[in-house]
Amino acid sequence: MSGSFGFLNLKKPPGLTSHDCVARLRRLLHLKRIGHGGTLDPMAEGVLPMAVGSATRLLSFLPTPKVYRAVIRLGLRTTTDDITGETLATAPTTDLTPEQVNEALQQFQGHIQQTPPAYSAIQVNGQRLYTLARQGKPVEVAPRWVDIEKLDLLAWNSSSAGWTDLAVEIHCGSGTYIRAIARDLGAALQTGGTLAQLRRTQSCGFQLAHSLSFDEIATQIEANTLVLISPPQALTHLPTITLPDALAQRWCWGQTLLLPELDLPAPPPNSDIVQVQNGQGQFLGISHHQNSSLIPKIVIAG
Questions:
Q1: Comparison of pLDDT for 31 and 121, the residue scoring more
Q2: One domain for residues 183 and 261
Q3: What is its EC number (predicted)?
Q4: How many C-beta neighbours within 10 Å does residue 19 have?
Q5: Same-domain check for residues 72 and 195
């Protein structure tokens, strides 16, 4: 492997938890310091960004927009809000029309409040909600604000079993539960709803088309051709400031630099966070830009 610091665009298979994926990648790379950039439910597949080595410190600076392709099953309500749960209720969907569904979908776009599923990784008093739910001790969680930029109906399939499957594409911010959208859409249409399939096609700037399966990663490791995605490649949404070597050393020591006094170009307006590199183009870390001052935030190289 070329270097042990950077990111991997993992194609998560269904059936594994995000933690399972971290553990498996640790075994493949023989490295302990690995983290992921956003939980995917075990039944889900698709993009799971992985940070290797010191790049784990940069996960919170990756872009937050996510894109999902999902199948929502109307006419079925389950304990987990997906098809892995036990059936709570069924209802006929034969009278539903695409016009009704599209109208209902409108209320799930924009800056909205969403109640997380009872089976989720959110912690309450140090315990995961899914642990409490499995113990028969479900906890009521307050709604949270989430951002859903776009929610499009792609396809419609009515089953002879009485339910209706909707293929949808969702563009959203972090913290959005697709299972909650399925549940709440079913409630709005008075049919019940649950999540039947989920694939994440974009996360943290990484695309499904460029993701690698575990088998592909293992093959590249064996051939010594695996190359990690560098921080500058993953952080293209952040402006870059290049420091001369002497100033770069001072910044790496934790010193605040005053840009006007040093005759350095200021970042674009409204750029609170910037990436910093030296004259040779080496990534040094992340800096806070405030009042024309460059304040070290995450120092990677020094």
A1: 31
A2: no
A3: 5.4.99.25
A4: 12
A5: yes
Q: Which residues of 260-277 are buried (b: 16+ CB within 10 A; e: fewer)?
A: eeeebeebeeeeebbbbb
Q: How distant is the alpha carbon of residue 182 from its chain centre?
A: 18
pLDDT at 289: 87
For 50-102, write each residue's pLDDT tens digit: 999 999 999 999 999 999 999 999 999 999 999 999 999 999 999 999 999 99
Q: What is the pLDDT of residues 194-207, one digit of tens each?
A: 999 999 999 999 99
Question: Within 10 A of 222 (CB to CB), how many other CB atoms are there?
Answer: 9
Please, where are the H alpha helices in the chain? 18-29, 98-105, 129-134, 178-188, 214-222, 231-234, 245-252
Distance CA(294)–CA(276), nearest Å, equals 10
Q: What are phi and psi of 223, to 5 degrees?
A: -90, 0
Cα distance between residue 78 and residue 94, in whole Å = 20
* Known catalytic residue at 41: yes
The CATH number given to whatever domain includes residue 120 is: 3.30.2350.10
Options 20, 41, 81, 272, the catalytic residue: 41
d(CA 268, CA 258): 16
Q: Pick from 160, 164, 159, 157: which is nearest to 185 by CA?
A: 164
Among the candidates 188, 203, 218, a domain finishes at 203
Asked if pLDDT for residue 140 goes beyond 90, the answer is no
Q: Residues 83, 186: one domain?
A: yes
